[in-house]
Amino acid sequence: xxxxxxxxxxxxxxxxxxxAEEKRKTNLDLWIPKTEIGRKVKNGEIKDINEIIDKGIKIxxxxxxxxxxxxxxxxxxxxxxxxxxxxxxxxxIWRQTQKKTSEGNKPKFATVIAVGNKxxxxxxxxGKAKExxxxxxxxxRKAKLNIITIRRGCGSWxxxxxxxxxxxxxxxxxxGSVKMQLLPAPKGTGLCVEKECKKILExxxxxDIYSKTVGQTRTKMNxxxxxxxxxxxxxxxxxxxxxxxKAGIREGRNE
Length: 255
Hints:
Layout: H1 2-30, H2 36-43, H3 50-53, H4 62-68, E1 73-77, E2 80-83, E3 89-92, E4 95-101, E5 104-116, E6 121-129, H5 132-145, E7 148-149, E8 151-152, E9 171-175, E10 178-184, E11 191-192, H6 195-204, E12 209-214, H7 220-234, H8 241-246, E13 250-251
Parallel strand pairs: 11-12
Antiparallel strand pairs: 1-5, 2-3, 4-5, 5-6, 6-7, 8-13, 9-10, 10-12
Helix pairs in contact: 2-4
C-alpha cells in the first residue's frame, strides 16, 4: 500500500514538471524581447549566459535566463513565521505584515525564492504583494534576474582531489548583523549549514561545505542574503593559474 502511494506521488510530480516545462516553452514562443540582449538571445546570436554575466551586463528580462538555462529548478525559502498549534511560532514560507487603517487591517505577503540548475548557477529574489501568488511570481522573476555564476573547486587540505564538489577557498558574506563564513570541506562531508541556506547551496551545485555564522541569525532574511553574498564574492577574488589547476576550479557548468 505504501509503495502504491509513493508511486502515485512520483507520477504526480512528473506530471507537474511536464506541465511546468510545457508552460515555459509556450511562454518562450510568445515572448517578444524588449531589450537588445533579449533580441540577440531570441535570434540565437547569444547561446551561453556567461557571455552576458562575464561582461557585467544587467539582465532585464527573465525569459533570457529561461532560454539560456532551460533546466532551472525552484525552491521557496522559509523566511516567515505562523502561529503554532499550541502557541509559539512555526516556520512558514510567507512573511505576513499588516497595515492598520481606518478601513481595517491590510495584510501583505512577502516571500524569498531561490532558482538554480544544480550546476554552477543560482539566484535569489524577494517578492511582496497583497496576495500570495503575485508575491511568488515577483520573487521568481527577481531571482532569475539576479542569477550569478558560482566558482567551484576543492580547496580543502584534507581532500585535494581537484574536483568541483566544494569551494576553492574560505569566503565571508554579510547582510545586516549576520556574517557567514563558507569553508571548503573534504568529499563526503555534506552541507554543514543552516537548513534554508542548504537549499541555496544545493541549487548552486555545491556538495561539501563547512560554515560559521555570527550575528542575529534568527532574522532569516539577513541569514539568506549573507549566504548569497558569500557565493557572489567567490567570483570576485583573483586567483593564480597554478592554484586554478591545483584546486580544479570551474565557473558555471561542468563540461
